[in-house]
TrEMBL record:
Keyword Protease part of the UniProt annotation: no
One Pfam family, short name: NMO
Molecular function (Gene Ontology), one example: nitronate monooxygenase activity
The protein's name: Enoyl-[acyl-carrier protein] reductase II
Length: 313
C-alpha cells in the first residue's frame, strides 16, 4: 500500500518499529526494514561509539530505509547527531525535548525528521518546528509517557483535527485490527513497540521477553510522574516505588530509589526483580516470541482481513 508515510520513508507498509532503549539494536532495525517496514535503532541506551557500531552493522544487514530514535535529554546528544550525519543515516525520530533544537539542523543535512509527542499541544509545536511527520503516542504505551494520560483512540483524532503533516499513531498497537482502527481515526501509519520487544531479533534479555509474553491485563502501570512518567511491569522494583509513595517522598528520594541503569538491568540484563521493566498495556495480547518478518506478515494479514470485515458491516 502507498500513502504519505510509505512515500516519505520509501517503505512497503506504513509501520514503524519503535526505537526502544535496550530493545532496538541493529538486528531488530535491519530485520524490520528487510520486512518492508521502517526499522529504528534506539540510541537512548547507547554510548556514541556503540551507536556508530550499530549503524554500520545495520547498513551491512539491509539495503533498505532505516532510522535512529534520539531522546534529546541525553547529555551527549550533539555527538550522537554528528555520528548520525557522518554515517549517512537519512531518518531521525526525536523525542523528550524541544523539536526546534535539532529539526532544521538535521533537515539542512538531508535528514527526514519525525518528533514523538503525547498531546495536541506538543504536536502543534512539532509542526511549527518544521518536522516532516509526528508520532502521537497514547497513554497505553510502554516506557516514558505523557503526563495527561490521553489514550491513543482519543489522542489520534484530536491531533488529526489540528495537524496537516503526516501522523503516525503509537501506543497499544500490536495487531492489524488496531492498525486499521487508528488509521480510520486519521493516522497515516502506526508505530509498534511492545510487539517487537517479543521478537527473536530484539536485543532484550530472553527473560524479559518471557515476562512480556506472560503478562496479563493489569500487569503494567504508569508511575514516577514526579520525575518522568514511565509505564512499568509490576515487579519488586515497582512495589518498592509504591511503598515509598506511602511516605510522600520528595523527587530527590524517588531519584535515590531509581538509581542508575535500572532499565539496563531489567530489560537488557534480565534482572526481573530489581530491574526497570518497561512495556505497554498491549503486552496482555502478546503470547509468543517470533521473527520480525512473521510478525509483520501477521499484522498485515490481520489488517487486510479487518478491512474486508469493516466493508461487510
Amino acid at each position: 500500500m502507498s500513502n504519505r508515510i510509505t512515500k516519505l520513508f520509501n517503505i512497503q507498509y506504513p509501520i514503524i518499529q519503535a526505537g526502544m532503549i535496550w530493545n532496538s539494536g541493529w538486528r531488530l532495525a535491519s530485520a524490520s526494514s528487510n520486512a518492508g517496514i521502517l526499522g529504528l535503532i534506539g540510541a537512548g541506551s547507547m554510548y556514541p561509539d556503540v551507536l556508530r557500531e550499530h549503524i554500520q552493522k545495520c547498513k551491512k544487514a539491509t539495503s533498505k530505509s532505516f532510522g535512529v530514535n534520539v531522546p534529546m535529554l541525553y547529555p551527549n546528544v550533539e555527538e550522537i547527531m554528528n555520528i548520525i550525519v557522518e554515517e549517512g543515516v537519512k531518518i531521525v525520530f526525536t523525542s523528550a525535548g524541544n523539536p526546534k533544537t535539532w529539526t532544521s539542523w538535521l533537515q539542512e543535512r538531508g535528514i527526514t525528521v519525525v518528533h514523538v509527542v503525547s498531546s495536541v499541544k506538543f504536536a502543534l509545536k512539532a509542526q511549527e518546528a518544521g518536522v516532516d511527520a509526528v508520532v502521537a503516542e497514547g497513554f497505553e504505551a510502554g516506557g516514558h509517557n505523557g503526563r495527561d494520560e490521553t489514550t491513543t483512540l482519543t489522542l489520534i483524532p484530536m491531533v488529526k483535527e489540528q495537524l496537516s503533516i503526516p501522523l503516525i499513531a503509537a501506543g497499544g498497537i500490536a495487531t492489524g485490527k488496531a492498525m486499521l482502527a487508528t488509521m480510520i481515526l486519521g493516522a497515516d501509519a502506526v508505530q509498534v513497540g511492545s510487539r517487537f520487544v517479543a521478537s527473536e531479533e530484539s536485543s532484550a534479555h530472553q527473560a524479559f521477553k518471557q515476562v512480556v509474553v506472560d503478562a496479563k491485563e493489569g500487569a503494567t502501570q504508569l508511575t514516577l510522574k514526579e520525575l518522568a512518567p514511565v509505564r512499568l511491569i509490576k515487579n519488586k522494583f515497582f512495589n518498592d516505588i509504591q511503598e515509598l509513595y506511602k511516605s510522600a517522598p520528595t523527587p530527590e528520594q524517588l531519584k535515590e530509589l531509581l538509581g542508575r541503569a535500572r532499565a539496563k538491568r531489567g530489560m537488557f540484563e534480565g534482572d526481573l526483580e530489581d530491574g526497570e521493566l518497561e512495556i505497554g498495556q498491549i503486552a496482555g495480547l502478546i503470547h509468543d516470541i517470533k521473527p520480525v518478518a512473521e510478525l509483520v506478515n501477521t499484522i498485515m494479514t490481520e489488517f487486510e482481513d479487518a478491512k474486508r470485515y469493516v466493508g461487510s458491516l
